[in-house]
Recover the amino acids of this structure.
């Protein structure tokens, strides 16, 4: 049996993470090996690898990413905030990354992971969690609507007896 992925374990709270935001469909947490202070990872709680495996859920995760980016911007005052969707061979669970960009730093792609203490992680986590961002996405309503669609069974198309008779006759004669 394959081992469950690390992001699934974080989503199920089976593994410690510095969570900065969570709702019904996603979890956002600090990267423990960040390229910049306050770098976050946003994941869907449902496991899938690529964005196109679940467009609807990927869209909701991107909305959460924007909210987390706004929280980071408000809490940490970086020069800018960038985010990315990148495939990872290390963790095959769809995710986005939020990168705060600070003055006098080299471009993020060239940055080596920063050493950050647990105390610093907790401090950054509290700052971001306390940010008040007025971006409301109707996640609960979207999730409820999706569940309702699952419960509705598609109506079977039935052919009339007359139509079936003529179809059979055509096949026999044809």
């Amino acid at each position: 049996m394959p081992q469950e992925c690390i992001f699934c374990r974080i989503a199920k709270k089976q593994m410690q993470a510095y969570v900065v935001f969570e709702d019904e469909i996603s979890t956002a947490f600090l990267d423990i090996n960040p390229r910049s202070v306050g770098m976050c990872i946003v994941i869907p709680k449902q496991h899938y690898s690529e964005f196109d495996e679940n467009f609807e859920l990927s869209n909701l995760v991107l909305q959460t990413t924007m909210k987390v980016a706004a929280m980071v911007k408000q809490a940490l005052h970086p020069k800018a905030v960038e985010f990315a969707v990148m495939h990872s061979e290390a963790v095959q669970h769809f995710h986005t990354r939020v990168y705060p960009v600070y003055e006098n730093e080299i471009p993020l792609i060239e940055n080596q992971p920063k050493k950050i203490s647990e105390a610093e992680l907790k401090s950054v986590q509290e700052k971001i969690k306390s940010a008040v961002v007025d971006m409301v996405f109707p996640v609960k309503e979207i999730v409820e609507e999706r569940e309702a669609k699952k419960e509705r069974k598609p109506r079977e198309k039935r052919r009339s007896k007359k139509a079936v008779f003529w179809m059979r006759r055509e096949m026999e004669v044809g």
Remarks:
- The chain has one domain: 6-137.
- The domain at 6-137 is CATH 3.30.428.10 (HIT family, subunit A).
- Residues 55-76 form the longest helix (22 residues).
- The mean pLDDT is 85.
